[in-house]
Amino acid sequence: MQVVHTVAELQALLEKGGNKQIGFVPTMGALHHGHLSLVEQASQQSDIVVVSIFVNPTQFNNAKDLERYPRDLDTDLQALSSVRCDYVFAPSVDEVYPEEDKRLFDFGALEKVMEGKYRPGHFNGVAQVVSRLFNMVKPDKAFFGLKDFQQLAIIREMTRQLDLPIKIVPCQIVREEDGLAMSSRNMLLTDKQRKNAPAIARTLFESCNFAPKLSVEDVKKQVVEAINATEGLEVEYFEIVDGDTLQAVDSWDKSDYIVGCIAVFAGEIRLIDNMTYKNRDHEC
Ligand code: PAF
User: Fold this and answer.
1) Could you identify the atom of ligand 1 that is nearest to the CA of residue 56?
2) In CATH terms, is domain 184-276 a member of 3.30.1300.10?
3) What b/e readout covers 58-79, taking b as 16+ CB neighbours within 10 angstroms?
């Protein structure tokens, strides 16, 4: 595993690989098993694996959130040594943004809901950095976790709009034993918050039992009430949406792909998760 900090170094190394298939996992560091499972999938499907570690300032709409985002390159490198990763690209802010990125993407209705609505500008920043990283790494495949469900839809749309020859590979959510979706933010939770946070996943899994029987509206109500009844947790939104358009559905027969997406505050820490209620080939 080789660590590089500049685009020139990275591209020189990748050029040596000739026509080998490049699998790319973009991250903001604070790596956990969810990230490592993305790297494992990249290594199964590619000849060369590149992982980027870059805390992207343009996707934070909250300065405090950016400031407290965990950063520890040495620990991340140690975690990556347990999987096959060929190159770690850890650039500086100036390397990624030699000048300000003023591009404004238009993702239409996809960005007007959920994370897009509650974190204005967030997805524009994600698209800025991911398109830059794609341009630097020029991967054949890029791997993203389904936990950031809306981000995945936005990145697919960005790749389509920019006509990039990159296959976007969605990867399953990895959970802690108690169900909590793995996230770099989990390490910011106090012991008490960490103890209460699994109520989010538990409630989502339980909601699968009554999803087809109760109306969409009633499932939403039950999920929000159950999570808000847990000490220290407060739902910011819970939307039940078409998995492709991300627009809210009001009944289970409105789509053959239905996902419930949630954002919950545990104190100041914002956690997201989602549950697929209906997929093309199975129901939850
Ligand atoms: O999901 C993330 O960690 C980030 O949004 C990403 C895709 C690495 C872009 O900074």
Assistant:
1) 10
2) yes
3) bbbeeeebeeebeeeeeebbeb
Are 235 and 262 within 8 A, CB to CB? yes
Q: Tell me the per-residue pLDDT of 206-265, one tens digit each, with 9 for 90 and over.
A: 999 989 899 999 999 999 999 999 999 999 999 999 999 999 999 999 999 999 999 999
Q: What is the pLDDT of residues 97-148, one digit of tens each?
A: 999 999 999 999 999 999 999 999 999 999 999 999 999 999 999 999 999 9
Query: Ligand 1: which atom is nearest the Cα of residue 59?
Result: 10
Nearest CA to ligand 1 atom 6: 27
Every domain of the chain and the residues it spans:
2-171, 184-276
Residue having the nearest C-alpha atom to atom 5 of ligand 1? 126
Rg for the chain, CA atoms, rounded: 19
- CATH classification for the domain delimited by 2-171, as one of 3.40.50.620, 1.20.120.1460, 3.20.20.70, 1.10.290.10: 3.40.50.620
Distance of CA 146 from the midpoint of ligand 1 (Å): 12
Selection from 19, 87, 92 nearest residue 54 by Cα: 92
